[in-house]
Amino acid sequence: MPTAFRYFVALTLSLVPAIATGQGTARSPQVAWWPRVPLQGSLVRVVVRPSAGDSVTAVYGELAGEPLHFEWSADGFRAIGATPFEARDSAVVRVVMERDDSTGDTVIAALPVARRRVPRERLRVAPQFAQPPDSLAERIRLEQELVQEVRQRAHDTPRLWCVPFVRPRSSAVTSVFGVARVFNEVLRSRHWGVDFAGQLGAPVRAANRGVVALVADLYYSGTTILVDHGAGLVTGYFHLSRVLAVPGDTVDVGQVIGRVGSSGRVTRPHLHWFAAYGRITVDPLDLVRPNGPMRFTTR
């Protein structure tokens, strides 16, 4: 029997969390997300709540083109997704629910996205320091492809963490996510992570359980560790002076995996902490906010 689908497109701004529902049946499911209006470059928790007596057996979908990895929990099927930094005012979430009687629902919702307001850093430098020379273009391209492969493979890894994420350092944050960096009046880049203060050689800890997916010396980020936490999530630890793990190692939450350094394209020792959901780079502090989207994703 062909699967029957009911389609409903919803946009909601007022509920906390925001909710979209199917239409035309007593057993229509609800799709909710938190935060109700996430910022650009944020993690989002998506929850599907079947009605009482509904026989939903599987849920899958995507948010902003990235797969969602739903798991059953006490409050329904839940997953973590992300909103792109370049999202203008919304991102599309599509959720498909399958039932044991071969029927199903597809809910498509326009998830509202708010502008992230960040400071600008204005610098005047000699032209050769504003961007790398053309001779390095191929190296940089290959390194970016390497990192993108790690990020995409995280969708194939099952969720590896079962306790809350922690900060990789307890020191002060010295630069926030998304800061615009303007060289000689031209926007050249953004700060795709969070910087923590640290003296040379200070410990750097894994934010949660995961598998070391990459250890490399990269042009921009210097000595770099990428940890695949599964279910689409990757964290990165940049500008290290020393690494204490190798690719394939399973590391635990809080384990020391490296030492603060100043490798790569920086001028002083510090830790740059990076986070991504698949191809979408997100504010890593979303992983550790007490009331953030990760709050109910442990087991």
From TrEMBL:
<keyword id="KW-0732">Signal</keyword>
<feature type="domain" description="M23ase beta-sheet core">
    <location>
        <begin position="190"/>
        <end position="284"/>
    </location>
</feature>
<dbReference type="Pfam" id="PF01551">
    <property type="entry name" value="Peptidase_M23"/>
</dbReference>
<feature type="signal peptide">
    <location>
        <begin position="1"/>
        <end position="22"/>
    </location>
</feature>
<dbReference type="InterPro" id="IPR050570">
    <property type="entry name" value="Cell_wall_metabolism_enzyme"/>
</dbReference>
<protein>
    <submittedName>
        <fullName>M23 family metallopeptidase</fullName>
    </submittedName>
</protein>
<dbReference type="InterPro" id="IPR011055">
    <property type="entry name" value="Dup_hybrid_motif"/>
</dbReference>
<dbReference type="GO" id="GO:0004222">
    <property type="term" value="F:metalloendopeptidase activity"/>
</dbReference>
<dbReference type="InterPro" id="IPR016047">
    <property type="entry name" value="M23ase_b-sheet_dom"/>
</dbReference>
